[in-house]
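dumping this here so i dont lose it
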């Protein structure tokens, strides 16, 4: 239960978690995995730095269609009368456009 005077802090914490904290551990795990696999004494990460074209072999493009960003935005509903939710909406839209 979030008290009204703590609502802004709760929204800021959620946005910080979604934008920063949640992604750090996933990126660290990927980095550790790419450094742990060795090919001729070089890690996969080293090989990707030397030969960026290997990226397509290791990380193929998605074969299934992705979600249309415009359709996603129109399906999200906010109470725009509330300043706190308006701020959260602005931050959320900024984040998904940068992704």
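and the seq i came up w/
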């Amino acid at each position: 239960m979030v008290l009204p005077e703590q609502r802004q802090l709760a929204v800021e914490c959620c946005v910080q978690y979604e934008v920063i904290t949640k992604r750090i551990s996933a990126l660290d795990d990927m980095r550790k995995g790419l450094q742990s696999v060795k090919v001729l004494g070089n890690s996969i990460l080293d090989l990707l730095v030397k030969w960026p074209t290997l990226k397509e072999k290791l990380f193929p493009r998605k074969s299934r269609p992705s979600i249309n960003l415009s359709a996603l935005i129109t399906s999200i509903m906010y109470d725009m009368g509330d300043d706190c939710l308006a701020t959260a909406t602005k931050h959320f839209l900024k984040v998904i456009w940068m992704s």
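The chain has one domain: 4-98.
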